[in-house]
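Changelog note: in this version the structure field was regenerated for every chain. One regenerated record is shown below for reference.
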Amino acid sequence: MSQSQNQEVQGIAADRVTQWMTQRIDGLAEPLSFELIAGGHSNLTYSVVDQQNRIFVLRRPPLGHVLESAHDMGREHKIITALAGSQVPVASTIGLCPDVAVNDAPFYVMDYVAGPVLHDAEVTAAIPADERSALGDHVVDVLAALHRIDPDTVGLGDLGRKEAYLQRQLKRWSKQWEATETHNVPAMDESTRLLAERMPEQIGASIVHGDYRLGNMIVGQGQVQAVLDWELCTLGDPLADVGYLLNSWVAPGEGEEDLAPTAAGGFCSRDELAARYASQTGRDLSAINYYRAFSHWRLAAIGQGVYKRYLVGAMGENRDVDLDAQKNGVTLRAEAALEFLLN
């Protein structure tokens, strides 16, 4: 499963990381083996296995230059640690290393949680139908639970400003778009304008995951076992998470997105998802199409950043990616955003 400690694994200073982990984990059996886990286009995730087959997970920023404030390991570690013991399942954290002398970048280590990640419909198809139905309900329940948590009571009240979430997000991702733009996308310009023009009023504030979808969860027995990838988490408008989840919740036979996990079938519909969330939180989802447009727009900005990082080689060597497909995906997201805003 893993590469030998004696082999160079890009992004890991094996000897120094091993020393750091040995000081924090009782009975760690050296040598450790490290392997880059497939998937994820931003922060890099590695499995770490000791000689007794104990498995841990290490997260670090992408290789090369990254945008200011992005890929903050300390922030991600803080969020996961704060949510331990809540109704939002997360992996147990072991420690944060802010010292770049150890691994050339900050990183943190957490326990390994067993179970599949449903990246696509093919993986989902292996899950029994009754488990899919239960899992879909639990995905909604966990999101509602996250949005009910008072950030101040779990030590996350300083994670970000609670108000003006959409304004802040538009500013942040517009800035990223400008910093990474490599070609003109007219639908992006128009959707940016309309999102600012038609912005709804924010009602209340919560912890916002920012990337809440089945592909960022470890699952098992019809339950979410751990929610992953908290790097975009902040405080703000919870309906942004709902719009994002609805966009990812693709029904069987729904056009070109048949690779999405839920396209395998057996899950609740988008309407049922929204109704379940609304009943648990009491939130009004009448303006949810704005949030679905915002979600597509933001993914276009994020996708453009990923595209540029691949172009300059910041995602590591030998990463198999279709640059034309990545570039086209940015345009498709921008056009999807515009369609929601115009209809």
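Spot check on this record: Strands lie at 33-36, 44-49, 55-60, 93-97, 107-111, 206-208, 217-220, 223-227, 234-236. The chain has eleven helices and nine strands.
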